[in-house]
Write a structure and sequence with these properties.
The complex is a heterotrimer of chains A (about 675), B (about 325) and C (about 290).
Chain A: E1 2-7, E2 16-22, E3 25-31, H1 44-47, E4 63-66, E5 69-72, H2 75-93, E6 98-101, H3 108-121, E7 127-128, H4 136-145, H5 155-158, E8 163-167, H6 171-174, H7 176-187, E9 191-195, H8 201-205, E10 208-210, H9 217-230, H10 236-242, E11 243-244, H11 246-253, H12 258-265, H13 269-281, E12 285-289, H14 291-294, H15 299-312, E13 322-325, H16 332-337, H17 354-364, H18 376-384, E14 390-394, H19 398-401, H20 405-413, E15 417-422, E16 434-437, E17 446-449, E18 454-458, H21 471-481, H22 491-501, H23 510-513, E19 518-519, E20 543-544, E21 561-566, H24 582-587, E22 592-595, H25 597-603, E23 610-614, E24 619-626, E25 634-638, E26 666-672
Helix pairs in contact in A: 2-21, 3-21, 3-22, 4-15, 9-12, 9-13, 9-15, 12-13, 18-20
Chain B: E1 7-10, H1 11-21, E2 26-33, E3 36-41, E4 66-75, E5 78-82, E6 89-94, H2 96-109, H3 116-123, E7 125-130, H4 141-144, E8 156-160, E9 164-169, H5 172-180, E10 185-187, H6 190-210, H7 216-225, H8 228-234, H9 240-244, E11 251-256, E12 261-267, H10 273-276, H11 288-307, H12 317-321, H13 328-336
Parallel strand pairs in B: 2-6, 6-7, 7-8
Antiparallel strand pairs in B: 1-9, 1-10, 2-3, 4-5, 4-12, 8-9, 11-12
Helix pairs in contact in B: 7-11, 7-13, 8-11
Chain C: H1 22-28, E1 32-43, E2 46-54, E3 70-75, E4 79-84, E5 94-99, H2 103-109, E6 116-123, H3 129-132, E7 136-142, H4 146-158, E8 166-172, H5 184-189, E9 192-198, E10 208-209, E11 224-229, H6 232-244, E12 252-255, E13 271-272, E14 275-276, E15 283-285, H7 286-289
Parallel strand pairs in C: 7-8, 7-11, 8-9, 9-10, 11-12
Antiparallel strand pairs in C: 1-2, 1-6, 2-5, 3-4, 3-6, 12-15, 13-14
Chain lengths: ~675, ~325, ~290
């Protein structure tokens, strides 16, 4: 038996763990005691991460659609056909008629090559990935206010906070190892404030649990700011020395009196005051947030409001402070860093910046397109309109994870060509003209960048099943067929190129990563990496306050419930992997809609009964769970279950600033299935 | 050389000895993987015998996290079944706590309809145990009567007495090894034996001073008096305590593959909700608190009733992997204080 | 190689598969193959399946079991689950009664005559029929738990002279949920008192409506014994009722249902307190499990 150190494939915590290998098969996993985040611990998904690797459902051979059926094909045929069709579409309809969706599940090396494939080979900036659906508002918001869209502090910093505001994050369920650090701070005496309409486990453990109504985040955050400023608890030195725009903020938040906040959010003035004082008086306070903050049609405003809060209290640049967006995929940070976004190359170098473009053109030896492409959800709209005709999707499952499933289906079906690479057949591979079987995390080399900007190794432990290959090879092979030089002999060689063209990754090399990896920015080989951002200054000089206002959202009296979506502790994303993990699927075998007991009584619904959840356009039959975890008027459905795909109900209600869809607030009505 | 004689093995002779043994057996030993000690197949790399007992117990070589029970192959409507033969192994450096865990498992898996996959691995494995002269921070084996010195259950037992290893045989197989490889050994001197006693009693003192012992009656009372609802609130439901425990042996069974495939079993955890939930949805231990209580009762009441031995060997792994930092020993103490 | 504590195996099961090497098969977890030879539809979601266990030469294997024992039944590719034996050892063929509950039971019910499934067992202790002999026997069940009682009823019917008064009280949710309706006549013919009741009646129903306890009128507790199987709530109510009529707790036998994976006391899924339902049960006397229900 061999034990190979690698990085977990699920959430952004990026826990180090060992994969146990016997006779070429993965037979177990165990936590890495020396890993700084795992510290010899894992969540339930991490402990069981080994179980899906050899599942018989794995894709093992390339498939090509012939006469309506996907049939076995050679790699040569699958690669040639993909290159040929994308090239034809590009030549007939222009480069912007093709697009690439990369994957937050892929390595940095894979994301880099797919991004290069889109830009250097297909000559389009039509490249995006699932970050659009999670932290686009963080990138948009925090770039404006702080100059960088990532977590300012490392996870371990949270254990040293004196007050932590967790909002829109079911941390105990979704980032258990981050939760462990938060709870460690609490047991040391820190005040834990949780703002969440749901009674999640971390909310029940909180010292102060604020239960805002869905869509009232700006109001209560501004309300806290207002109280802090009124009580002279703001950090005036910090504001004076390192920020700009405070006066406008002060003026803007002054109208958010506790009474007004209560009217909008339902949070009592007492609770609001307790939270404000605890946060402001703490020597080191931190904000932690996730999808509950970003996945709204005003997601960027929510982020800006939180940024205002940490700036006003001077909680930036020190251990125990900061604003910490928790990434939901193990490499969504890395995929963004690698420029798998329509606006930037690696390291957030803008495609519209001629100097950056020239640099990349020189590095890659080819000319590059200058205009940014559409975002992921916009791509689906463009596809339906016939503007995008060919897409390469890497390991994403838009049929499950994007809003408005029916629209996504129409979009993908209307394409002239769709190629999908994945480890398992999914609802999306089912629509593909070419399916590439690719290696899982246990079968490839590369790096992942965790939520705390920690670049870490993923190490090949076993061979991929059948003819499956690492996707960096697929990307390189496609590039070669489109005339771009891409002779990489290993993932490590790709990283060497990444380091050359990506300033924050300049000092990253496989030799340096070891168990703990390195935090970017790490500009040169002697740089120790940067745990805490903004210690001396901000990339934009001074941080900026950005006043934001609450917007009343319309309720639909015919659809009186607010549907919010999310994940369960036991599953990950569209369930492609965790639904195939024996124990995880046993723990949570089916989808349920969580309904508050009062609502359930009014509807005459008992636990276990089938109900129909209806939006204006679609409806979904699903089993009811009656639980205090959701407040009255709100219902919750996780999106892991293809038997009950909740994104049938969600809509393309995009945040204008970041183009994220609103997954957290859809108006629905509910009735018993037998009525 | 008499059967029960203790021998002395120079530190430098250990590697040549296991190299010889490795010619016919797969040698499993604590080795460094990226700098951390783990039990893995030894391929000649430096041994991690001086490091703390690895986080993952070598019990996994008898009861793997996942293993194939048998393969099924369908042919014209009928099935044929294939077993997976066990490997011949030598486990070097198994600590007394893990050795005790094996003894408990032998009682559960080796008697009354022995569990074939376990028993066959057990029969084909030689255990070279290592006494704990420098116990780890998390250990409370002395309180559980399972360490720091191994009493029985090994084929060979090593004690690092500074100048080398004192080697004792505990089985005919162990004796055979000593005879067949006698050129590596010397007769042990009385001072080696004395040094062993001294080091182990120091170790025992260190362990007992760290955490005061509880009597079985106190433990029973503590389980009754613990507010399991409170523990439930804090538990982050990772299952780590039961997945890392060397005595825990719950398993689940699953099939993979149609029409041909494998019936696998994987380690399971009685603290998970689905463990006892029936297909009807009814769950005899519905609350997490009840399941956590059951976990303790099993270790301190049910397993002792069944095997005459405690179901806890004091390795401390459950506390060290606990995501919620629930110290399993402390909560018992707190409950009765 | 230290075999010191690997004690010699003890036989704990009251019945075993006939034939050589079967103990090793059980402990290897390798099932015996069994051919489906008949399928009867008992209700919309319950089938009575007749099986012919096969040895390696495809010859029929006779299973030696007693009423109350169960089999681990496999559908290869879906898995294995415990199913009560519904037939009496006094009769051929071996039968299991399967109610649709999850994936595996769905798989079993999808089988057709001629298909192969895997069986291991028999497991569990079974009803202590020797202790019941010479006594008045009350057999009460509800829902799908009635399958295991049918094994006992047919066993008693075939050894009728060994028992005194025998009373069957059986309750189901609706008349459609009643099992083995064609056999009630033969039980009565064998001198067994049979009472049937439902929770919810329909137009065609002419029988009793209400709790099974209402069927237990003239039962004699001395010397009396009872066999119970059904939902925990019902069992508890019936057991209390029997105790109030003078039945002794140790003479009331209850068949418990639990989640199981191995059938041989190793996997720990079925534990009730310190008991393993698979090896020490599934039949327990009321004084032992009364508190644990």
């Amino acid at each position: 038996m061999e034990k190979i150190h690698t990085t977990c494939i699920y959430c952004g915590c990026g826990c180090g763990l060992y994969i146990h290998v016997e006779d070429g098969r993965v037979v177990g996993a165990s936590p890495s005691p020396a890993h700084p985040v795992a510290r010899g611990r894992l969540c339930v998904k991490g402990w069981l991460v080994h179980d899906f690797v050899h599942h018989p459902d794995r894709l093992k051979v390339p498939l090509i659609r012939r006469g309506g059926r996907q049939v076995r094909a050679s790699w040569e045929d699958a690669l040639s056909l993909t290159a040929k069709r994308l090239k034809e579409i590009k030549e007939e309809s222009g480069p912007n008629a093709v697009a690439v969706l990369t994957s937050a599940k892929g390595t940095n090396e894979e994301n880099y090559l797919l991004m290069k494939f889109a830009r250097a080979a297909l000559k389009t900036n039509n490249v995006d990935h699932v970050a659009r659906l999670c932290h686009a508002p963080s990138v948009a918001g925090l770039s404006i206010s702080l100059g960088s869209g990532s977590m300012t502090n490392p996870i371990k910093s949270l254990a040293r906070s004196d007050a932590i505001l967790v909002t829109g994050s079911n941390t105990t369920g979704q980032h258990p190892l981050v939760a462990a650090h938060i709870l460690e701070a609490q047991s040391r005496g820190a005040t834990l404030i949780v703002a969440d309409p749901r009674k999640t486990q971390i909310a029940t453990l909180a010292d102060i649990h604020l239960k805002p109504k869905l869509g009232s985040d700006v109001a209560w955050t501004n309300g806290i700011l207002n109280l802090i400023i009124e009580r002279d608890l703001a950090d005036e030195d910090f504001i004076r020395e390192r920020t700009e725009g405070f006066e406008a903020l002060k003026e803007s938040v002054s109208k958010y009196t506790p009474e007004m906040v209560e009217r909008i959010s339902g949070i009592s003035p007492e609770d609001l005051e307790k939270a404000a004082i605890a946060f402001a008086e703490a020597p080191r306070a931190a904000v932690v947030y996730a999808m509950g903050t970003t996945q709204h049609s005003n997601g960027t405003d929510n982020v800006l409001a939180l940024a205002n809060l940490i700036l006003a209290t001077g909680n930036v640049g020190r251990m125990g402070t900061g604003i910490n967006p928790l990434r939901g995929h193990q490499n969504v940070q890395g995929a963004c860093d690698m420029g798998a976004l329509p606006t930037v190359y690696t390291g957030y170098q803008k495609v519209e910046d001629p100097a950056a473009r020239e640099k990349m053109e020189r590095a890659w030896g080819t000319d590059l397109p200058s205009s940014p492409g559409p975002t992921a959800v916009e791509m689906m709209e463009a596809a339906e309109e016939g503007l995008i005709k060919g897409i390469y999707i890497s390991g994403e499952n838009p049929m499950m994870s994007y809003p408005d499933r029916e629209q996504v289906k129409r979009a993908l079906e209307s394409l002239e060509f769709l190629a999908v690479a994945d480890i398992f057949p999914t609802e999306t591979t089912a629509l593909a003209d070419v399916v590439f079987p690719v290696a899982s995390f246990a079968e490839k080399d590369g790096t992942f960048t965790s939520t705390e900007r920690r670049v870490q190794r993923v190490r090949r432990a076993v061979s991929p099943p059948g003819e499956a290959r690492s996707e960096w090879r697929v990307a390189a092979d496609l590039m070669k067929r489109l005339g771009v030089d891409a002779d990489y002999s290993s993932a490590e060689e790709v990283m060497e190129e990444i380091a050359k063209v990506t300033p924050p990754y300049g000092g990253i090399s496989y030799q340096r990563l070891g168990i703990s990896g390195l935090h970017w920015p790490c500009p040169d080989p002697s740089h120790p990496g940067t745990e805490i951002l903004h210690q001396e200054s901000f990339p934009i000089g001074r941080a900026r306050f950005n006043p934001v206002e609450h917007q009343d959202l319309e309720l639909d009296p015919e659809y009186p419930f607010l549907l919010t979506t999310g994940r369960s502790l036991f599953h990950f994303h569209t369930g492609t992997m965790t639904r195939r993990v024996h124990l995880l699927n046993r723990e949570r075998p089916r989808a349920t809609v969580d309904i508050n007991p009062e609502d359930a009584a009014a509807l005459g619904v008992r636990r276990g009964q089938k109900v129909v959840v209806e939006s204006r356009e679609h409806s979904l039959e699903i089993e009811a769970d009656v639980t205090e975890e959701v407040p009255k008027g709100t219902v919750f459905i996780p999106f892991h279950f293809q038997e009950a795909p909740v994104n049938l109900l969600t809509v393309h209600n995009l945040d204008p600033k970041s183009k994220i869809p609103d997954f957290k607030r859809t108006c629905v009505r509910i009735r018993r299935a037998d009525s | 050389m008499t059967l029960n004689a203790a021998l002395f093995l120079d530190h430098e002779n250990l590697v040549p000895l296991i190299e010889e043994l490795g010619k016919t057996l797969e040698v499993v030993a604590p080795v460094y993987a990226e700098g951390e000690p783990v039990f893995a197949t030894w391929k000649g790399e430096p041994l991690a015998l001086d490091a703390d007992n690895p986080l993952n117990s070598p019990v996994e070589f008898f009861l793997p996290q996942k293993e194939v029970l048998f393969k099924y192959v369908q042919c014209s409507g009928r099935y044929t079944f294939q077993d997976v033969p066990p490997k011949s192994r030598l486990i070097l450096g198994m600590r007394p706590c893990d050795l005790q865990a094996i003894k408990v498992l032998d009682e559960i898996f080796g008697t009354e309809l022995p569990d074939h996959p376990y028993a066959s691995k057990r029969m084909s494995t030689i255990i070279v145990a290592l006494n704990c002269t420098s116990p780890g921070e998390r250990c409370f084996c002395a309180q559980m009567g399972s360490g720091p010195a191994a009493e029985e259950g090994y084929d060979l037992l090593l004690t690092d007495v500074g100048s080398g290893y004192l080697v004792e045989s505990g089985s005919p197989a162990g004796m055979f090894i000593l005879r067949a490889h006698s050129h590596h050994f010397e007769e042990a001197l009385p001072e080696h034996l004395k040094e062993k006693e001294r080091l182990l009693s120091l170790a025992e003192e260190e362990i007992t001073n760290r955490r005061p012992a509880l009597t079985p009656e106190e433990i029973r009372r503590a389980i009754d008096e613990t507010d399991w609802g409170e523990v439930e609130k804090r538990c982050l439901r990772c299952g780590g305590c039961s997945l890392v425990c060397p005595v825990c042996h719950c398993f689940s069974v699953m099939d993979r593959g149609v029409p041909d495939g494998e019936r696998l079993r994987c380690r399971d955890s009685c603290v998970m909700a689905g463990f006892s939930r029936m297909t009807s949805g009814a769950n005899p231990r519905a609350a997490l608190g009840e399941r956590l209580r059951h976990w303790y009762l099993d270790k301190f009441v049910y397993i002792p009733e069944k095997t005459g031995m405690l179901g806890c060997v004091g390795c401390g792994r459950c506390s060290s992997v606990c995501l919620s930092e629930i110290d399993r020993w402390s909560i018992l103490r707190e409950a009765i204080e | 190689m230290n075999q010191k504590s690997l004690k010699k195996e003890k036989r704990v099961r009251s019945g075993t598969l006939a034939g050589k090497g079967t103990d090793q098969m059980l402990s290897r977890y390798v099932p015996l193959q069994a051919e489906v030879i008949d399928i009867d539809v008992e209700s919309s979601n319950t089938y009575l399946i007749s099986l012919r266990p096969l040895d390696e030469e495809d010859e029929t294997v006779r299973l030696d079991y007693c009423p109350g024992q169960f089999l681990m039944v496999s559908v290869f590719g879906l898995g294995e689950c415990p199913i009560s034996i519904a037939s009496s050892p006094t009769r051929e063929p071996l039968q299991i009664c399967v109610r649709e509950a999850g994936k595996i039971t769905q798989g079993i019910m999808a089988a057709r005559v001629g298909d192969i499934m895997g069986i291991r067992g028999p497991f569990g202790n079974g009803f202590p029929v020797d202790k019941m002999k010479g006594r008045n026997v009350v057999i009460t069940g509800g829902g799908s738990g009635f399958a295991t009682l049918r094994s006992l009823i047919n066993y008693i019917a075939d050894n009728r002279e060994d028992f005194r008064d025998v009373t069957v009280a059986y309750g189901a949710r609706t008349p459609h949920d009643l099992y083995f309706t064609s056999e009630y006549g033969s039980w009565q013919a064998a001198g067994i008192e049979v009472g049937i009741t439902v929770d919810m009646m329909d137009a065609s129903w002419k029988g009793n409506v209400g709790l099974v306890t209402s069927l237990l009128k003239d039962i004699n507790p001395s010397p009396g014994t009872a066999a119970l199987c059904g939902p925990p709530m019902m069992i508890n109510a019936v057991a209390k009722d029997l105790v109030s009529r003078g039945f002794l707790e140790p003479d009331i036998y209850i068949s418990l249902e639990r989640h199981m994976k191995c059938g041989v006391g190793k996997c720990e899924h079925c534990t009730v307190g310190h008991y393993h339902v698979c090896t020490e049960g599934p039949i327990f006397s009321y004084d032992v499990v009364g508190d644990l229900l």
